[in-house]
Amino acid sequence: VRDEYRSDFDSGRGGYGKLVQQKVTPIGEGIFGR
User: Fold this and answer.
1) pTM greater than 0.90
2) Would you list the domain boundaries of the chain?
3) What is the per-residue DSSP string for 1-34?
C-alpha cells in the first residue's frame, strides 16, 4: 500500500500527496501527522 502512494510522497509538504489524504486520511494523519 505504501508503494502506490510513495510516488506521491513529498517530504517537502510534510507527508504524502493527495492520494493518501483521500484514501488514508485518518491513518495518514496519525502516522505521518507527527
Assistant:
1) no
2) 2-31
3) -HHHHHTT-BTTTTB--HHHHHHSHHHHHHHTT-
